[in-house]
Input
Amino acid sequence: MELTPDQITIAITVYHRRPFLTQAIESALDQTRAARVILVDDCGPDASLGADIRSRYGSAVGYHRNPQRRGLFDNWNACLELCQTPWISILHDDDFLLPEFVAATVELSRSAPGRGLYLGTTGFVDEMGQPLRGLDAPAAPGWTDVDLEAAAFNNTFLFPGQLFRVDDARALGGFRATSRYCGDWEMWFKLAARYGAAKSGAKVACLRIHGGPDRGTTSIERSGKKYGLENVQRKRNVALLSRNGRSLRFDRVAIQAAFPLPIKFLLTAAAGSSDRILAYNVELLRRSRAPNWRYRAFQALTAGLGSQFPVLVSRIWNFRRRRQTQPVYALSGSHGKGALPT
Output
């Protein structure tokens, strides 16, 4: 059956990040081809949010508040449970869609019928919604099928801007509720492996890069666990393909050659990491293929002075950042219709 906009729900998840929420909601409502929009509140501390949403948007936005907090990925399962259409796209409260998202994914489904997951190109913006130089990829014509072997090692399923079939996700057991970081990559990869996935070159959404302390990615990065959790997911992906008859193995040397541990990650995380996590990341640094002389110098200093060298540099780095950085918040009215009441 041909996919149509009325078969799509855009589910926006929220806990307590109001400054960006208006733009997320209005990006879902301002589609060139309308879809159903719901807001799923993970029992956030702001009990007045539901009343504000109903007052502002009426029946245009469905609102549900979980009776108790379920956590990031289990809240995505709540989205699946609440969805009343065959297809769903999940949107974080701090990201936003471009007006052509629904139209572009519907068109992609016609060009590549029968897939279980459709993706567009995702742009990157800063805290104020401005494109990030060097990261914001331009749109491109055409589409491609997702290369599973490449996607097993590198998360090409950028969030947001995805569309998938609800029943397929349910058949795979839903999102891993206990996942701390890679629950999205895991689900997108499983959907692609079981049902196929296609990606359009059309730019359909923007991911906001910001350092808010309530941002899950920021918390994982500061703990130093990011790359360890990614390697666990790579092993899961390889195991899934192996069970499906594809010969693939997890090669740590090849991975560190292709994806060297970023020095900036160590500068951010080393001072706050446990001894075990620090040792793990230092070993990843040792195995990484240096992209330039500065990287080789950092490797050599760490090898010569031990793991306390990145810890010391990290302390200096974070001290200077704390002194230089001032908190920035989205301005009321900066997205055309004003922010939600606070």
